[in-house]
Design brief:
Number of helices: 15
Radius of gyration: 27 Å
Distance between the termini: 43 Å
Oligomer: single chain
Strand order of the largest sheet: 1-2
C-alpha cells in the first residue's frame, strides 16, 4: 500500500505559493531587507517587524522572495507569533534556496506543527489549534525536501490519527512511511505493523467484513514476511490468527445466507472455503482457514450436506 498523491486545496495553494504581483514598477531587491535583518540580529524584533510588515513577499524579485519569507518567519518566531511564523516558513519551504537554510525552516515547521498538534500552542491564550498542527505537518510531509522531516511529519500524523480511532486516515500515513524513498529511517517496522492494526481495529464485534478482514490478513502476512525479527511479531501473529477465525465466521455467515435463499451450491461453496478446502479462485483464502474453529464447524456441516 502506498500513500496516494494529494492535491493541495485552493486555500493551501494560496498559502504556499506567492501570488503574482500586480504592483507597478521594478520589484524590490533583497538589500531592502538589510535594516530589518540587522535589527533582528540585535534582538530588536519589534522594530524589525515594523519594517517587514510594510512589505509583501510578491513585491520582491523572485530571488529575494524566499529571503523575505525566511526573515519574516524568523522575526515573527522571535516575537512568539506562531501563526505568522508558520505562514511565512511554509511559503519559504516551496521556494528554492540554500539547503542549510531550507533544513532549518523545515525543522522549525516540524517543531511548531508538533507543538500545535499536542495542544502546546494556543489561540487567544486558551484554545488549542490541533487542526492547524495537522495541516502544518501535512504540508511538510508532502512539500518538504528532506527525508527526515517528511518522515517525522508522517509519523506524527499517523500516530495522532491512530490514537483518535481514525484508522482509514492513519493507514494512509503509515503507508507513506513505507515509501522506498524513506527507507532506513527506522519507521518501517512499526508502520508495517500498524497498517495491519488499522484494518484489524476497524472490525466491529459480531460484524465480519470480508474485505477488511482480508486487508488485515494481507498486511500482517506482509509484516511477518518482511520483518522476521520484527518488534511486534507476537502481536501480529495473534491478530492474524484472530482474523483467520473471523474470516471463517464470515464464510459461515455467507453459507447461512445461501441456505436461507435455497441456494445449495452457494452454501456449499462458502462451506468449502471455511473448511479450508481449495475452492476455485480461493486457494490462499482456504489455506488461511485450515485448523480454525470455523473449519471444524464447516466440516461438520459439509458432512451432513447431501
Amino acid at each position: 500500500m502506498r500513500l496516494p498523491i494529494r492535491l493541495l486545496t485552493p486555500a493551501a495553494a494560496v498559502l504556499l505559493i506567492p501570488a503574482c504581483s500586480s504592483l507597478e514598477g521594478p520589484p524590490r531587491s533583497a538589500s531592502e531587507l538589510d535594516s530589518a535583518r540587522t535589527l533582528h540580529v540585535e534582538g530588536q524584533h519589534e522594530a524589525a517587524w515594523d519594517i517587514i510588515s510594510d512589505f509583501e513577499a510578491e513585491e520582491f524579485d523572485l530571488a529575494a522572495q524566499r529571503e523575505f519569507n525566511v526573515l519574516a518567519g524568523d522575526v515573527t518566531d522571535a516575537l512568539g507569533d506562531w501563526n505568522r511564523t508558520v505562514r511565512f516558513y511554509e511559503a519559504a519551504m516551496v521556494q528554492p534556496g540554500p539547503a542549510s537554510q531550507a533544513l532549518r525552516v523545515e525543522q522549525r515547521l516540524l517543531e511548531l506543527g508538533i507543538e500545535l498538534l499536542e495542544g502546546k500552542r494556543k489561540v487567544l491564550i486558551f484554545f488549542s489549534d490541533r487542526g492547524r498542527g495537522l495541516v502544518t505537518l501535512e504540508n511538510l510531509a508532502f512539500a518538504g525536501q528532506f527525508r527526515s522531516t517528511r518522515a517525522e511529519a508522517l509519523a506524527r500524523i499517523a500516530e495522532y490519527r491512530f490514537a483518535q480511532g481514525a484508522y482509514v486516515d492513519a493507514a494512509q500515513f503509515y503507508a507513506g512511511l513505507l515509501d522506498p524513498t524513506l527507507a532506513g529511517l527506522g519507521y518501517e517496522d512499526h508502520a508495517a505493523f500498524r497498517l495491519g492494526m488499522c484494518a484489524y481495529l476497524r472490525l466491529e464485534p459480531d460484524k465480519p467484513k470480508g474485505t477488511v478482514i482480508q486487508q488485515g490478513l494481507d498486511q500482517f502476512h506482509a509484516y511477518l514476511r518482511d520483518f522476521p525479527q520484527g518488534l511486534s511479531r507476537a502481536e501480529a501473529e495473534a491478530a492474524r490468527a484472530d482474523l483467520a477465525e473471523r474470516l471463517g465466521e464470515y464464510h459461515l455467515m455467507l453459507a447461512d445466507y445461501y441456505r436461507r435463499i435455497d441456494n445449495p451450491q452457494g452454501e456449499r461453496f462458502h462451506l468449502e472455503i471455511a473448511s479450508g478446502k481449495a475452492a476455485p479462485g480461493h486457494l490462499e483464502e482456504a489455506a488461511e482457514l485450515r485448523g480454525t474453529r470455523a473449519s471444524a464447524e464447516a466440516d461438520r456441516r459439509l458432512a451432513a450436506t447431501p
